[in-house]
Model the fold of this input.
Amino acid sequence: MEDLKSLDLNELTSLVTELGEKRYRAKQIYRSLHKNMVDSIDDLKNLPKAFRERLKSNAYISRFKIASKLESKIDDTKKYLFELEDGHIIETVFMKYKHGNTVCISTQVGCKMGCSFCASTKRGLVRNLTAGELLNQIYCIQKDLNERISNIVLMGSGEPLDNYDNVKKFLEIINDEEGQNISYRHITLSTCGLIEEIYELADLGKPINLAISLHNPFNIERKKIMPTANKYSVKSIIEACHYYAKKTGRRISFEYTLISGENDSKKHAEELARISSGFNCHVNLIPLNTVKEYDKVKSNLRAIKEFKRILDSRGINSTIRRELGSDINAACGQLRIDFMSEREKLAR
Done:
């Protein structure tokens, strides 16, 4: 059975005509799903009852259950654990900024990239999320909070470019004026550097913001914490970034997690400044979020400020990320692992 929410308008039109209805019905369904965020075929009241019954025999509308919701007492951050229809759990984070409400969504159940400091990857990859499941994270939060989401970051659990086809469809639907009409310029996609897909994304010509999870400018050292560096070198990633910036006109962001004694020295800052020069980019300095499975600690504030000072002195724009939701395990993957471990204990 087809998930109606995962179909683009052309696919929806094909399904509608196959079921013997006029083409315009597809647009009615599409608007109900993506503008009005309807999550039941019975609630498609603009369709004839007989057609709704035929639809139910051939399709469904995916929906989520909120398994857990944590609200920070420090700021307005809210972390959701959603239970998918097959029982798997994913995380999504809602954050308030001056420039608008932002949601950080997951793109996979788990992750196979293996970054040593990230909790999301500790249990490996279970499966990709569908386009409908990507959209549901936005829709569920908007309905739960009765607030409009204006910015999206694909930076939760999973590697977005490892789920390229579903992510591409999600981007097109969430941007569609017949749906939520969220500007591509308000969407950021984070990747650890899957080169072929970066070029493919660039060739789409959509002004999506690209963020590279870099974390070390020296390839030999990067391999120790990010297995993907064995396939994709820092040099090849930077070349892809130049291409992406030229094709889209968008600034590139480098995500750089600062780990005490590992990647926070003067030589790391100077090399990061060197490879970041020559095109429009920005470095987002992130104090390490401690996870149980990784025994390193975050750089102290003095080291972080000195790292930033070196970048700034070399003309590289940088900011130190504000730590949101630190009291609710807002780092990627932490809450999901804790929830699953607890559920497994209860099942024994």
About this structure: The chain has a mean pLDDT of 93. The longest strand covers residues 89-97.
